[in-house]
Model the fold of this input.
Amino acid sequence: MKRFLGFVKKEFLHIFRDYRTLFILFGIPVAQILIFGYAVSTDIKNAGVAFLDLSKDEVTQKLTDKIISSGFFKKTETLLNYNDIDMVFKKGKTKAVIVFEEDFGKKLINQGKASLSIIADGSEPNTATLITNYTTAIVNDFTMDLAGPVSNNSLRINPEVKMRYNPALKSHFMFVPGVITLILILICALMTSVTITREKEFGTMEVLLVSPLRPIQIILGKVMPYFILSFINVLLILALSWLVFGLPVKGSLILLLAECMLYILMSLTLGILISTVSSNMQQAIFISLVGLMLPTILLSGFIFPIENMPKIYDYVSSILPPRYFIVIIKNIMIKGTGLMYIWKETLILIVMTLIFIGLSVRNFKIRLE
Done:
């Protein structure tokens, strides 16, 4: 028994000395419970809402204040006419537009009924459904308060719900762009993350070390085949999205392909960076899969809106490239926007690509020495 306890003690010491094992045992569970506990939420919080008030009376102002003060929504803009609705959706911060008809207050008081329209961004079906349900409930509650406790509910506000870009609320309008984003970064980063580590493990690194190629040439040489193959993969995915799911590309196909090429290049350089800091293929694969899959699914806005999460997760997601590519691909494919609406996200991806290339070259130079 004494020998057995000594052996157990030795195994404990071995585990405590290995920080990677400790990270797997304690770090990952803690990170997952925090991420899932706060990020995975079906509640609405701080959803952007714009208002088009054609009546501008006391009743519409009170109803607007009630909607904003509920804590579920935040006011993004006040629109002047119907032509502004499409523009405000393309900016990306507004999830719904509430339109009050002319003489809203007079009709409600004199005729006992009035109408308003709730126009939601259908490119995110789950969020659009929640927003319309929450808004309708607030409107009904406002009507009951306005009618008074002794009323026979003679006052009635009729909300008319419309879905922009996705009238049928088809779920693949959300999942297809998100899956494209996930597939590209995982496949590209995973494939290239094992390249340099594979050279080291197979003993062929010496060939690269004595070759006349510079680090940047070696890195680009590793990236180029995967870049071409990944671009073919993009064409295949887009074709399947159109033929199988009927998801059209409403914007410029050339712009979409150019943005995909940029995202592929960024993902490949990220994979090269991972390979330069990994000591073996298992470590590179672990970093690529665990380090990229969950954050991409949970913190990129793919499924769960970022505005619903605590502010700290907004900061964390801001360093994740998928967050910006999802905005780009949804705007081009579903909303039909041009470069003027996605230039910020495009610029961020370009900067990230340059940073990853620079870090990869620097780390590779260190290895050459």
